[in-house]
Design goal:
about 280 residues; alpha/beta; GMP Synthetase, Chain A, domain 3; Rossmann fold; seven-stranded mixed sheet; four-stranded mixed sheet
Length: about 280
């Protein structure tokens, strides 16, 4: 059976080109038919599970700042929209136009567990709202910023779906929305500083810590996600200190946690940062 993720009632399969599926010594035409038949066979096996109604194949890796994927329909109901249940919350999304990783469920729960009732929280790169909505059940106020218009629309719907009134969703580039000392909302600068900042950022070169530091204060805690090999972890931490020095902020690294793997020998890390001035 190929690897797969389940989002709501949709299973997304990923077939390894190096697996037995693609190593059969057959003619090109027979091999193509064999591969197609084998994929359909495995898809139908998944449909036997009560919670799975649709099976898609992931045909390309996650790409770009919006972290979108391409899929191909294999079996079941023809849809790309799902309602995913996690941590007593529900999230509606299109699995092809909106990035969502069910594998981060425990990670989101872990971060939410560090939030206090009095906290004002900023979630950058918020997607369809998984961090924001789970955190909102603990925090006083949550502000979400998301670049994708598709994710923004679903996030707004998901706030209503979860019957919350303490989440504000802003569509835009964090570099344009966040200004020193506040956020640009409807063309106006709203002075804001946050107690907690969550940064589930894409795997990009830019750290975006400059923006996070600009709306932080003494004792603000930033949950910063970054990517790299284990033997390069010290360099990732050094980058955090360099960014804090540029922003004239003194920080303390509270914790470094491996938060999942993204490729062979390459991991997602969460660095918990506390501002001390």
């Amino acid at each position: 059976m190929a690897n797969y993720d389940v989002i709501g009632s949709i299973a997304i399969m990923k077939f390894d080109k190096e697996s037995f599926l693609f190593r059969k010594k057959k003619s090109s035409k027979r091999k193509t038919k064999f591969v197609k038949d084998e994929k359909l066979k495995q898809a139908k096996q998944l449909l036997k599970r009560k919670n799975i109604k649709t099976v898609l194949e992931k045909t390309d890796r996650v790409k770009g700042r919006l972290r979108t994927i391409k899929t191909k329909f294999l079996a079941g109901e023809k849809t790309k929209e799902a309602v995913h249940k996690e941590n007593d919350c529900r999230f509606r999304l299109n699995v092809e136009t909106c990035y969502f990783s069910p594998r981060l469920s425990e990670e989101r729960k872990d971060v939410a567990g560090k939030i206090k009732k009095k906290d004002k929280v900023l979630v950058m790169f918020s997607g369809v709202g998984p961090y924001s909505i789970i955190i909102a059940k603990k925090a006083r106020q949550v502000t979400s910023i998301e670049l994708s218009r598709a994710c923004y629309k679903y996030a707004k719907d998901n706030v209503k779906l979860n019957r919350l009134n303490n989440v504000e969703v802003i569509q835009g580039d964090v570099k344009k929305v966040i200004r020193k000392g506040g956020l640009i909302v409807k063309g106006n600068l709203v002075p804001l500083q946050f107690d907690k900042i969550v940064m589930p950022r894409p795997n990009l070169r830019e750290s975006f810590l400059k923006q996070a530091f600009s709306v932080s204060k003494k004792d603000t805690v930033i949950y910063y996600y970054c990517f790299g090999r284990m033997d390069k972890l010290n360099k990732l931490v050094e980058e955090v200190y360099r960014e804090s020095k540029k922003a004239r902020k003194r920080i303390k690294v509270l914790k470094i946690k491996k938060a999942g793997d993204i490729a062979p020998y390459k991991f997602r890390y969460r660095i918990d940062i506390k501002l001390i001035n």
